[in-house]
Specification:
Layout lengths: L4 E2 L6 E2 L2 H41 L2 H12 L2 H24 L1
Antiparallel strand pairs: 1-2
The structure holds zinc ion.
Zinc ion binds next to helix 1.
Keywords: Coiled coil
């Protein structure tokens, strides 16, 4: 039974010292790469959570509530503005035609 070499960084076993030293070198680089990627991911998620907290704490949130109240009358507002738009465009058309 041959002695296996266990990697320091993962649970992999290598059959020879040569393979072990090559794998550990590769595995160490891979681990450092993953750690730096995790750190940058944490920075991004921190930024996102900060932005979310900012928007929740700011006055914009109360403005959104006001917009939602106005939104109940959205159909009326829309039809009124559409009527206004149609009347104006009709006037413009007649002006152009005359
Ligand atoms: Zn490894």
């Amino acid at each position: 039974m041959s002695v296996n070499f266990k990697c320091l960084y993962c649970d992999r076993y290598l059959l020879s010292r040569n393979a072990y030293s090559q794998h550990v070198k590769y595995c160490n680089e891979l681990k450092e790469l993953n750690i730096s990627m995790e750190e940058s991911n944490n920075d991004i998620s921190d930024m996102v959570s900060n932005i979310n907290e900012m928007s929740l704490d700011s006055d914009d949130f109360s403005q959104i509530e006001e917009l939602q109240k106005e939104f109940e009358n959205f159909d009326e507002i829309l039809s009124e503005s559409l009527q206004n738009y149609t009347e104006k465009s009709d006037t413009n058309m007649s002006n152009i035609l005359e």
